[in-house]
Amino acid sequence: LTKHKDFFKVTDEILEKTPYFKPFSDSIISILNNKKINKIVFDFRGNTGGSSVQGTELIKEVKNTIAIKNNAKVFTLIDRYVFSSAIINSLDTALYLNTTFVGESTSGSPNHFGELKNFELPKSKLSLSYSTKYFKSSISKYTNTIEPDIKIELTIEDYKNGNDKIEAFLKSNQ
User: Fold this and answer.
1) Tell me: the pLDDT tens digits for 31-68?
2) Which helix or strand (DSSP H or E) is residue 20 part of?
3) Whole-angstrom Cα distance, residue 106 to residue 24?
4) Dmax over Cα atoms in the chain, in whole Å?
5) pLDDT for residue 18
6) What is the C-alpha separation between 40 and 99, in angstroms, rounded?
7) How far apart are CA 157 and CA 54, in angstroms?
8) How many helices (H) and strands (E) does the chain have?
9) What is the pLDDT of residue 137?
């Protein structure tokens, strides 16, 4: 969670790695209800997936906050490394929050198999994974990939110099 001077940012690390998510989620909702927030940013760049349930619940709760009712702009940052559950949460921001996608096209497809289960072969002891669910996008515009509304590609020079053109865009976009 990052509170910039001019926007509020929720990253994939928050959605995936916070051990007690509900109290943390409640604190985000409290901030969005009690502070003047003009922009809300969901940063899914580099998120290859995991579990989408916590993110979906948070996004649904964000929909009912004072910040959204006061027309805070919502941006969802995506790139070529967004897959699986991160795709689902990205789509949730479009479905519930009328987001603007910024960055690069996702490599993962909104229509995909997921919710993996594992088993071990009894003799070889090899561990295998298999999908138990097929996810299908409810937004017909997004079936093969999520294309950004605002395309900003980072170059190797940007990476080497620590230049995040997307953060710069967010800071300059009023």
Assistant:
1) 999 998 889 999 999 887 777 778 889 999 999 999 99
2) none
3) 28
4) 61
5) 56
6) 9
7) 35
8) 7, 8
9) 66
Among 15-24, 51-60, 150-159, where is mean pLDDT lowest?
15-24
For 138, the 3-state DSSP assignment is coil
pLDDT of residue 1: 45
pLDDT given for residue 136 in this prediction:
75
Q: Is 155 exposed, middle or buried (0-12, 13-18, 19+ CB in 10 A)?
A: exposed
38: its two tokens = 């003009």
Give the strand pairing for 127-135 and 112-120. Answer: antiparallel
CA separation for the pair 102, 92 (Å, rounded): 15
Q: Cα 63 vs. chain centroid, distance in angstroms? A: 15
Neighbours of 59 (CB within 10 A): 26
The reported pLDDT for the residue numbered 13 is 55
Distance of CA 81 to the CA centre of its chain: 11
Would strands 39-43 and 8-11 be described as parallel, antiparallel, or unpaired?
parallel
